Amino acid sequence: MRKSRLQARRDRLYFIWGSVLFLAVAALAAAAFWYQFKLTPAIDAGSLCPASGPSGHIVLLVDKTDPLNFTQREAFQVLLEEIITRKTHAGELLSVFVLGEDYTASAKPLIELCNPGDGSDKSELTANVKRLRRQFEDKFRTPMLALADELQSQQPARSSPVLEMIQFVSINGFRRRDVHGPHRLILISDMLHNTANLSMYRSGYEHPAYLATDYGRKTTVDLNGVEVELHYILNNPSLQTRRHLKFWEDHFTHAGARIVSVRPLEG
Fold first, then answer.
1. pLDDT for 66-88, tens place per residue?
2. Residue 97 pairs with which residues in a beta bridge?
3. Of 45, 105, 135, 136, which residue is 20 to 30 A from 249 by alpha carbon distance?
4. Among candidates 250, 263, 32, 61, which has minimal Cα distance to 172?
5. Cβ pair 63, 192 in contact under 8 A
6. Could you tell me the strand order of the sheet in which 227-233 lies?
7. Residue 193 to residue 266: CA distance in whole angstroms
8. Cα–Cα nearest to 111, from 90, 77, 140, 132
């Protein structure tokens, strides 16, 4: 009888401790589930942006008024991948504009998406890393890279309205979205503005003289606080001189922005 009572007491203790262990494991699993699905910031299904809004805004403006040669096309493809996967951080909005001969036809972005994050900074214990990676690849990186052909031209254009497109980038990019956080404009262009009102193929690059004209006053722009990254397509190195760059430095300074990087596109 004594052995039976001891066995019964031992069985009760096993049951109690087994129940406690089960409840502890269940609590940990529930906490991990809650952390993953409740504490992970929600994103908008269409834009992939955080529900609280993008953490920064990058605007990419690609000049397609002149066709790229083979080397430039290869360099452009690598640069585009770099902008998508490394320069645009998780939570930041990337808006892509194209500069064509008719700026009124390309005044709106071709695509606007936030980088939803690829899960590389997450733990398998608190996030579905595979799902995040698949979302990044299928909904952000692939659609962005699919624009590569649309951002290039096969024939040279008769005009290159760089100044007007920078205005539209300001209006329909930065100002329309009004994102809180850092703002960066990435330009891939030869920056040789060429319209009936001003042609950098024929006239000088003096910014004060340009500002004094009616056309200069009409094409002024507000880019307050924007950092500008310029990737020069060197189609006419004899024209793309230090004086030419000084015009754009003055133009962006007058707009409240600043050039933080100047880099030639190979080729």
1. 999 999 999 999 999 999 999 99
2. 61
3. 105
4. 61
5. no
6. 111-114, 92-99, 56-63, 183-189, 227-233, 258-265
7. 21
8. 140
